[in-house]
Design brief:
Elements: H1 2-14, H2 19-22, H3 27-53, H4 57-80, H5 86-94, H6 100-124, H7 127-132, H8 142-163, H9 172-192, H10 198-208, H11 214-235
Helix pairs in contact: 3-4, 3-6, 3-10, 4-9, 5-6, 5-8, 5-11, 6-10, 8-9, 8-11, 10-11
């Protein structure tokens, strides 16, 4: 038995499957659903916890979302590319790293993950608690919230676009994305609640029945993703590397030539 396993492992090692082929299965959609679930469930649960314990929201919540994204990337990033965000998948599609059929399936998986996360929080707490985790415009109003979501999504996605193809950053590439998300939350929470992710907003809004400014969080992040692709191509066109994977995968970078 042990000899058979060893022989099989040696055969697999000598005949590696291309990343695109290994990812052309249902597992990548399951990975997107689960990764989005981890991100939304951990982040929104941290919001409820901070409100219950009077912990500083501007410290607890950004760290929770950033660390949850890091955990999701380690758990599922190698399978799907670790988008966990419809705006990121849109950017990957526009940057020709994701097919049109895949981007729609990624969106479905991501929204499903966000809804399941909100339902899990509902089971653990109450609908009022889930409603407290919804992203809503701050005191400066809808216009400011829209601008904040647009610009910070642009920044976040621009980091992903470059970190996922550049071999210059080494191990720090995997940390750059969660740290950027944490920075976005530190800055944006008072103005928009900090979403930069339609799936993160839609799940709690649906389950918590809070629809205040929902249009902002469904429109601004995708527009930010488009702007990020434009900036990425314009600024980095001379040094742009053609990605070997169709997604934002950073975990496989270390095995590539020049990484």
């Amino acid at each position: 038995m042990g000899q058979n396993v060893a022989a099989f492992s040696a055969k697999v090692a000598s005949s590696p499957v291309p990343l695109e082929d290994s990812m052309d299965t249902w597992q990548k959609y399951a990975a997107e659903l689960l990764g989005t679930f981890v991100l939304v469930f951990a982040g929104t649960t941290a919001i409820v916890a901070s409100l219950l314990t009077a912990a500083p929201v501007l410290v607890v919540v950004p760290l929770a979302f950033g660390l949850a994204l890091l955990g999701g990337l380690y758990a599922f990033g190698e399978v799907s590319g670790g988008h966990f965000n419809p705006a990121v998948s849109l950017a990957m599609f526009l940057d020709r790293r994701l097919s049109s059929s895949d981007v729609v399936k990624y969106w479905i998986a991501q929204f499903a993950g966000g809804i399941l996360a909100a339902l899990a929080l509902l089971l653990a707490t109450s609908q009022d608690d889930v409603a407290d985790t919804a992203t809503v415009p701050g005191s400066f109003g809808d216009g400011t919230a829209f601008l904040i979501e647009l610009l910070f999504t642009t920044i976040f996605v621009a980091v992903i676009l470059q970190a996922s193809v550049s071999g210059r950053f080494g191990d720090s590439a995997l940390l750059a994305i969660p740290l950027t998300l944490a920075a976005v939350h530190f800055a944006a929470i008072p103005f928009s609640g900090s979403s930069v992710n339609p799936a993160r907003t839609f799940g709690p809004d649906l389950v918590g029945n809070v629809w205040d400014g929902i249009w902002i969080y469904l429109i601004a992040p995708p527009l930010g993703a488009v702007l990020a692709v434009v900036v990425h191509r314009a600024v980095l066109s001379g040094s742009h590397r053609t990605p070997e994977a169709p997604t934002a995968e950073v975990l496989a970078e270390h095995g590539r030539p020049g990484a």
